[in-house]
Write a structure and sequence with these properties.
Elements: H1 3-15, H2 18-25, H3 29-43, E1 48-50, E2 55-57, H4 59-87, E3 91-97, H5 99-102, H6 106-116, E4 120-126, H7 129-132, E5 143-148, E6 157-172, E7 182-183, E8 192-196, H8 202-214, E9 220-225, H9 228-236, E10 242-245, E11 256-261, E12 266-274, H10 280-295
Parallel strand pairs: 3-4, 3-5, 7-11, 8-9
Antiparallel strand pairs: 1-2, 5-12, 6-10, 6-11, 6-12
Helix pairs in contact: 1-2, 1-3, 1-4, 2-3
């Protein structure tokens, strides 16, 4: 049994007339008769009672008609949805992100995208930098927003810089250095540093170690903790200072002073995706993302 058989049967059942059914189907009447006969043979049931003057549905035919209509409707919907999926207007997009650098623009972009493409499911994944900056750990994500401090293996990814953020010293407001407009890294040689655990933020910790090394010293790590909020609480408690991108000021209390470095270090906030990702939703999202960022001069 094929979909063609069902369409022929539905046409005859609705018209109860082979001539009108054949005109609707743009085929000759003998073809319609043959397809109905083939259908009845295939299922082993008589669906139509017919003579030279009339055509009627059998009891089996009445039940089969409703089922046939549902099958055709579902098959047409499946084809239509497949076409939409091919165009990217239906499907799923998995986004990985760091919240601080994207908070100003990503929610609005997602909201506008959902209005434009309501049948696309958006899955948001707020993940540690260690996961986001290692494509092998983020291979199930379609697009990643992160701070570029050394993404592992960029050979198979495409990335673009969204903006560049200043790297600053976060220090307790009562610290003697808190009154300075800018600080050299060399001024921090004897200062205790508060950092996140290496497994939580390996790339950033390596970055801090490297810029300190360029100034001829290794930072004295007084404490390590898991979350950025805890790092800043330790700083506010006067237990040490920390070096972070300026966008993380959203987590800092007013009692923490944020001071620029004289060495003018910075970090790029980027988005990237796998070159081999053929999800059509991704290309639509990037197109809208680029347009929005350009129009808002981000």
């Amino acid at each position: 049994m094929e979909l063609r058989h069902l369409r022929y049967f539905i046409a005859v059942a609705e018209h109860l007339n082979f001539t009108r059914a054949s005109k609707e189907l743009f085929v000759n009447q003998s073809s319609v008769s043959q397809q109905i006969a083939n259908l009845e043979d295939a299922i082993g049931l008589k669906l139509l009672k017919r003579d030279k003057r009339s055509v009627e549905l059998t009891n089996a035919g009445k039940v089969f008609l409703e089922e046939a209509k549902e099958i055709i409707s579902k098959s047409e919907a499946a084809i239509e949805n497949a076409k939409k999926a091919e165009k990217g207007i239906i499907g799923k997009l998995k986004i990985g992100f760091l919240i601080a650098p994207v908070r100003e623009f990503l929610p609005q972009i997602i909201k506008e995208f959902k209005v434009k493409y309501p049948n696309v499911e958006i899955e948001l994944n707020h993940l540690p930098t260690a996961n986001l900056n290692d494509p092998s750990k983020a291979d199930d994500l379609d697009i990643v927003f992160t701070a570029f401090t050394g993404i592992k293996d960029t050979s198979n990814i495409e990335y673009k810089t969204l903006f560049t953020e200043t790297v600053c010293v976060f220090i307790d407001q009562n610290h003697p250095l808190a009154t300075q407009k800018s600080i050299s890294l060399k001024d921090l040689v004897a200062e205790p540093f508060i950092m996140r655990h290496w497994e939580e933020s390996p790339q950033w910790n390596d970055y801090v170690m490297s810029i300190c090394s360029k100034c001829g010293f290794s930072p004295q790590i007084a404490s390590q903790t898991k979350r950025i909020e805890t790092v800043l609480m330790f700083v506010e408690s006067g237990l040490g200072l920390t070096i972070l991108p300026k966008y993380l000021k959203m987590y800092a209390s007013p009692k923490i002073q944020i001071i620029n470095l004289k060495e003018n270090y910075s970090v790029d906030v980027v988005y990237y995706s796998n070159k081999e990702n053929d999800n059509p939703v991704l290309s639509l999202f990037i197109k809208d993302l680029e347009f929005t960022l350009k129009s808002k001069h981000i």
